[in-house]
C-alpha cells in the first residue's frame, strides 16, 4: 500500500479471478487503477463503482506491449479528471466507524440504499425467492 501513495497509476493485473483487493487499495489512496481486462471492474462493483471508466484506465491488448508509453500518453486533463472522480467517490468505498451527519454516504449506506430501492420496487423479494 505504501508504494501506491506516491504513484499516479497502479497496475492491477488480473489474478485467479477478475476481482482484486489492490484495485480498492489504490482507489483509497488516490492512485488510478490500471486494469487489463474489463471484467475486473464491470458488473462486479456496480453499487460502489457505477462508472468504472471514470476512475480507471483499461489497457487493451494492443497496448499491453508498451504499457508505460501508453500511460505517459494520457493527457494531463484526463489524469486530473480520473483523480477528481476517485476523490469524489472514495468515501463510498469505505465503512466509516463514525460518520458526521452531513457526510457523503459510505459503503454501508450505499448497500442499504440499494436494498431499500429493491424492496420498494418489489425486486428484493424476487431476488430472495430465487435463492
UniProtKB/TrEMBL annotation:
Domain Exostosin GT47: 4-62
Alphabetized Pfam families for the sequence: Exostosin_GT47 (PF03016)
Chief localization: Golgi
GO MF: glycosyltransferase activity
Record keyword rRNA-binding present: no
Keywords: Golgi apparatus
Domain of life per record: Eukaryota
Gene Ontology annotations for the cellular component aspect, listed alphabetically: Golgi membrane
Membrane-topology descriptor: Single-pass type II membrane protein
Subcellular locations according to the entry: Golgi apparatus membrane
Annotated family: Belongs to the glycosyltransferase 47 family.
Name the record gives this protein: Exostosin GT47 domain-containing protein
Native source organism of the sequence: Cymbomonas tetramitiformis
